[in-house]
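Q: I have two molecules that I believe assemble together. Could you output C-alpha cells for the complex as a whole instead of separate predictions?
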Amino acid sequence: MLLFFQKKICLLVLATLAFTATSLAQSNVSGNVKDKDGQPVTGVSVTVKGGNKGTSTNAEGNFSLMAVPANASLIFSASGYAQQEVKVTGTDDISIILLTSIGSMDEVVVIGYGTAKRKDLTGAVTTVGEKDFNKGTFTAADQLIQGKVAGVQMINNSGQPGGASTVKIRGNASVTGSGQPLYIIDGVPLDGRSARPGLSPSGLGDAPGGNPLNFLNPSDIASIDVLKDASATAIYGTRAAYGVVLITTKRGQSGATKIEFGTSIGTSSILRRVKVLDATQYRQALTYYGVSAANDLKADVNGLDIILRNALIQNYNVAISGGNDNSKYRFSGSMLDQDGIVRKTGIKKYTANFAGSFKMLENKRLGLDINILPSLYQENLAPITNNAGSTGSLIGQALQWNPTEAFRKPDGSLNVKAGDIINPLAMSEAYNDVSRVTTLLASIAPSYKFTDWLEYKLLYSINYGTGTRRASTQQFINLGDVKDRGFAAIGQNELTTQTTTHTLNFNKQVATNLTMTALAGYEYIKTTNKGSNTNALGPTGGFGQYGLDYTNYIQFSNPGSRNISSFVDPSFELQSYFARVGFNFKDRYLLTGTVRRDGSTRFGTNNKYGTFPAVSAAWVVTKESFFQVNGINSLKIRGGWGKTGNQDFPSGASQATYSFGNNGGLSQTNYPNPDLKWQNDRQYNIGLDASILNNRVGLTLDYFNKKTGDLLFPTFPDPAGPIGGAVLWQNLVGSVENKGLEVAINTNIIDKKDFSFDFGVNATFIKNEVSGLPAPIPTGIFIGQGVTGTFVQTIRNGFPINTFFTREFLGLDKGTGQALYTDGGSTFYSVGNPNPTTILGLTAAFKYKKLSFTANMNGALGQKIYNNTLNNVINVGSIKGGRNIAVSVYESPVKEAFSNPVTASSRFIEKGDYLKLANATLSYNVGPVGKVFRTANVYLTGQNLFVITKFSGFDPEVNVDKSNRGVPSVGIEYTPYPSARIVTLGANFSF
Amino acid sequence: MIRKLTMITSLFLLLGVLSCTKLNEDFEGNLTQSQIGAGGAGNATALLTQLYNDTKGTFQNQDQIFALWEMTTDELIGPTRGPDWDDNGVWRVLHEHKWDGDNQRIIDAFKSLNGIAYGATDLLRFSPTPQQGAEARCIRALAQFYLLDGWNQVNYREPGESVVTASKVRTGPEALTYIITELEAVLPSLPDAPATGATKNGARALLMKCYLNKGVIANRATPTFDAGDMNKAISYADQIINSGSVTFSTNYFDNFAPNNNSIGRENIWTQQNVGGSQSFGIRSRWRAVMHYKQNPGGWNGFSTLSDFYNKFEGTDVRRGTNYPTTASPVNPGNRITVGLFRGQQRDLKNDTLLTDRGGAPLFFTDQVKSIETGDNLEVTGIRAYKYPIDFNNEENGGGNVDNDYVLFRLGDVLLMKAEAILRGGTGTAAGIYGSTANTIVNAVRTNRGASALATVTLDNLIDERGRELYLESWRRQDLIRFGKFLLPMQEKPGASDPKYLLFAIPNQALAVNPNLKQNTGY
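A: Yes, here they are, computed for all two components at once.
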C-alpha cells in the first residue's frame, strides 16, 4: 500500500514536470445532433479529422468545440448510427441528423485496456449496447446479453433469483474449474467468486452458489463487450482462455443536470412443471401397482403447488447525471425486491453508483476518473441442493409427496410424518436461510496526457465483499439427526481483490497514411479469501420452540455436535506486463500484435511466468479501388492467432500443504508440483464483417479453432501418498478442441419515419473433441439412494467433453417389468453429448410511431440432458414407499416392477433441444410530458414466456452441479429450483 | 522529442520494475513443507493423532476394508433392493466374485491403506520420540499387511522421498519379511497399554497373523505351513496371554459395547471413539443393516446369509442376545438387540410388530439374492451387527457413538494358537486355556455358551473362526488360508476363478505407477 502511494506521488511529480504542447486556435464550432425522429442523440463522438481533438454531444444533443482549424472536417460517430463527415465552412453552428446503421464500423468498442473503433478491430469482439439489452428484471448483468452474442452459450442454472449462471464462450473446454469467462468492470477484473458463504443444510446436501455479478445494478450498465478470439483476449493472458466480458457502466454527460427515474412491478410464476401423478391418477396407480389402499389418504393436493407462489417483483432506479466538458458525474441508486416462486425465497438488493470524470490543470491534461459501487443484497434461500441423498431436497420432497395426503392435520398443525417421507410444506416452514452480502467496488484512475498522442493512466481499485449467512432447521421436521434437536449454521466470508494497473497509450500518425497505436502496461492483482463456519445440533430436547431462530442462540447446542472451522486461502497474486501495437495503413490494412507476460503465485516454482502472444490482421476490401461493388458498403476480412491461458485452480495447488484437522490432527492435503502451470489455449480465428444493401444488413462471420492443452487436473496420485482427498495438480497431456462457425446477421428491413422493423439472428455451430488424454476422467457423480458412486459422464479421447457414458437401456422386459440393458448393463456406452452443437439467438424489433415491440428468443440444439430427477426421485419404487411417481412411469406401456433397480442408464437421457421466448417487450414512448418530463416511457415485458422442447424436466436450460473432484458436469438435471415466467409493467421518466 | 519519449518510457518501465513482487505464495491457514519441518516433535504428535484417525475411517467405514474382507465371503451380502443399494453394482460384484480394477470399494481401500502407510512414513521425518516412531511403524505394518493380503503388492517410500515420483513396490514373501522385521524391531519401544493404540500385545497379535499366513502369502492357491512359523505364532500368543492384560469378558458383547473401553477385557488393539465428541465410521455397522422403520432407523442394506446363520447353536450367545446399554429401549419382549436378526422384528419400546414401508410385516427372511426382484425386497435377508447400539449417543445427536472399534482381541489370538498347533506347531500351556487345540477352542466355546467340540479339526475350526470373528474383517483371509475362499457359496453358485484370491490393482494406480503390475487374470 505504501509502495502504491509512493508510486502515485511519483506520478504526479512526473505529470507536472512533463512538457505541455500548444495548439493554434482558429475558430469555435458548436452544433446539435438529432436522429431521424428528431430526438437529440447524446454521446455522439465529434472529432476533428486527422487530429485528436474531440468532444461528445450532451443530453440535448449539443456539442461545442474550441479552436477548430479552418477547413477542417468534423466526424460524427455513435454506436448504431452511420458515421458522418461534415466540413467546417465558416459557419459555427452545425446541425446533423444521424441515420441508423447496422453494424456500424465507427462504433466504439471496449477492448482490453482501452477502446477502439470497430473499423480498426482485427479480432472477434461483439458489443451489445444498452438499447439491445434483454429487457426485464435481472439480478445479474450477464443475463442482459443472453442470446445476443454468437459463440456464447448462456444458461441460467436455476430459477432462484440471484442464482448462478453458466457462460461458455466458444465451447466447453474446462476439465476442471468453472469454465466461466473473465469479467472486467470498467477496467477492474473480478475474481469470479461471490462472498456468499457456502453452507449445507443438515442432511440435505450442498446448496448451489450465487451469481458473482449480483452486486451490479443492470440499469447502470452502458454496454457489454465480449472478447472471443485469442487475438482479442491474449492481452489478459492466463485468465483469458474462456473469453473476456467487459462491462462498461454509464458515465455522466455534459449538459444540464438530468434526472432519470425508472420503476417496474412484476409477478412471476413457474414456467414448466414436471409431471407427477395427481390424486385421481395416484389412486388408480395404487390399484394398478397393487399397493395397499391404505396409501390413499383421501385428500387431493399437489406437493409442488404448496411450496410455489406467484411472486412479486419491485424495482426502482434513480440516476442523476450532468456536468460540463471538464467534469462529469453520474450518481445512481437502485432497489430490487424480487420474491422467488418458491416460498420463503427471494433477493433484496440495494445498489448505488457514483461515477465521476474530471479534467484538471489549465491545459486539461490531467484526468481523474472515480467510480464507486457499493451494494448490499440479501438472499432468502430454500433447502434446494445439488446433491441431496435419500431425504431429497425441497423440490424432490414436493415431487414425491403423496397427492392424496393433506399437508396439515385436521387441527391445522403440520402433518409431519414418522418415517422418512418429508412434508414439503413442513420442510419449507422448518427451514430459514438468509445470506447477506455487502460489496464495495471502488476505483480511482488518474491519467495524464503528455501530448495529444501519449497518455499515461493509473487505475487502482479495491473490490471488497463480505458475506454472512445464517441457516437453521426447526426440530419438528423428521429429518435424520435434526429431528427433535434442530440445526443451526452460521457462515461468514470475506473476499478482497486489489488491482493496480499502469498503462501508457500511444496513438499517432507516424507516416503518411500510417497510424500507429501502442499500449504498454503493468498490472498487479492481489486477492485474499477467508471465512468461517459454525454449525451444531440442539441439545437433548432440542433448541426448543420458542419462536426464535436457532442461529440466535447457538451456544444452547449439544457440544458433541458442534463443528467449527475457519480457513484462509493462500494469498493470490498476479503480476503482469503487457503490450499491444497496432498499425493502420490507409484504413485499409490493419495489423495488431499483443503480448502479455503473467506471473502467478499459483504456478509452480519452475514455471512462474507465462508469455501469451497474439497477432491479427485485417483487410478492408471495400477501401480498395478495384473492389467497388454495388450494394456492398463495407467488407472487412480478419484473421488472427494467439495463445491464452487459464489458471482456474486453487491457490496452494503447487505446494505440499498440511492442513489442520479436527481435534489436534494434522495431515498432508496436497502434493507439491513445482512444474504446475497454466492451462494453455491456442486459437485461430478467421472472420469477416460486412455491411450491405445501404448499410441495412450487417453480417459477421467467424470461424474459430480453439485447442486447449496442458489441461489442469487434480490427478489420482501415486498410491503411496497422503490419505483422503490429497491430490496432485498436474498439467495433463491431451487436449480439448472446440471449432465452429459463428454467424450474426442484423437487418434493418423497414426503416420509415413512423415504422421500422429490425431483425437479427445469431447462430453458432460448434464441434468439440477430446484427444490425447492418458486416462478417461469420470464426472457427473450421483449421490443418493441406489446410485451412490455412479458417474454418468466421462471425458474420453475421441468424444466430446463430458459425453454421457453409462448403460444402454433397451426397454422394459414385458414379462418381468425389469429394465433390459445391452450386455446386461455391465458395459458402458457413449450415449449422448451434453454440449449443444447449435446455439441460436433471434431478435426482432418493430416500431410504429411511439409504440415499439421487441422480442428475443434463444435456443440450443443437439445437446442431451440427463434427467436424474426422473431416475432418482420419481421412479416406480417411490409409489411403494408411499411417495409419488412420474406420469411417464405410470403411463409406460410395460408395467415396471418395483424391484427394477434404480440405476443410471440411457433411459434417462433426453433430448435437450429448445427454443425459448426469453423476453418480449411492448413499450410506448410518451415523449416529453409538459415541461416536467423530458422523456417518459411505459412498457410491459414478459420473460421466459414459453419454451419449445421435448425435455420432461422443469427447464432444458439447466445445469445442476454434479462435479466430481472439481471436474465439472454438464447438462444434468436434479431437482433444481424451477424456472420462472415473469411479467413486468414499468415506466421510465427523465427530467 | 524522441529523447522525451525515451525518458517517459524509461520512467514508466522503472515504475514497473519497482512494483515487482516475488510472487511467493503465503499460507496463512495451512502449513507448508518448510513450516511443518520447523515444528519438531510437536508436529509428530499432531501427525500421529491424524494417523490414528485416518486408520479409524479406513477400518470402521462400511465401504473399505469391511466391504472387501467381509462381503467377498459367506458372512455378508449387499443386495440391490429395487430403488436402493444398486450403487452401480459395486456391492453385488464383491459377493459374486466379479470385481475388477475399477471397483470403487477396491480403489478406496487400496488408496486408504497406502495413505496410512505413507502418513506413518512421513511422520518419521519430524523427530518423533522412540515410542511415537514405534507406534507409527506398527500402524504402517498393519496397513501394509492388509495391502499384502489383499493385493500381494505393497507400495513404499523412504521418509522425505518426493511423492511426485513413482513409489517402489515390494511383493509377496519379501514384503512379509519386511513387515515382520519392522514389527520385531519396534516391539521393545511400544508401550504395554492402552489398548486404544499400538502396544506390544498389538504388535504380537499382528506378528501371529504374519507367521500364520506366511505360507499363504508365498502360495495362496496351495499354501504349506512351516512348523517353525507356527511355533513363532504360538510363542507370540503365549506372550500375549502371559502379559495378563487380557482375559475373557463377562459377556461376549462387552468387547463391542459402547463402554467397551472399560469392560471389553478381551481387547488387545482397538480404535478409540469418544461418545458425544469424536467417532468414526463405527455407526455404519448398525445403520447399514437396520430397516428404515427400526429404532434407530437404518439404511436397510447388507444381510448375512442363512447358511452362515445355521452354523450357530441356539445357545451360542454370539448368535444374538438381549444386551441392554445405557438409554436402550426397555425391550419388554426380551428380544435380541445385538447379533444376528432373523424373522419378525419388533418395536423394542413396546414389543409391537414392525412393518415395512409398504405395510407388510418386517420379517427378515432366510432367502436373499444379489438382485432382489420380489415385492418383499425390503425385508429379505438375515441382518447382523455385533456392536451394541449406543442409544445414549444416538439420541444425543451428532452421530458420535462411543463403541471402540476392535482390531485384535483374545478370541482371535486363542483360535490362531489352536490353528497353529493343528498346522504342526507344538502345543504349550499358557493361561487357563490348556495346551491343545481342543482345550483352547473349547475354552472359547464354553465361554460363549456353545457346547464343547469333541475334536477340533481344521474343518470345524474355520467355522469356529466365523462364529467368533464374524464381521471383524478377517473372514476373507481366513477362508483363503483354509482353502475355502473360491468354493461356491450361498448366492455365488460356482467356484470362482483363482484370480479372485487377490484383488485387482486399481487401474488408476497402474496408470500412475509403472512399478505396480496388474495381478494375474485381471
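A: One point stands out. Chain B touches chain A through 96 residues (CB under 8 Å).
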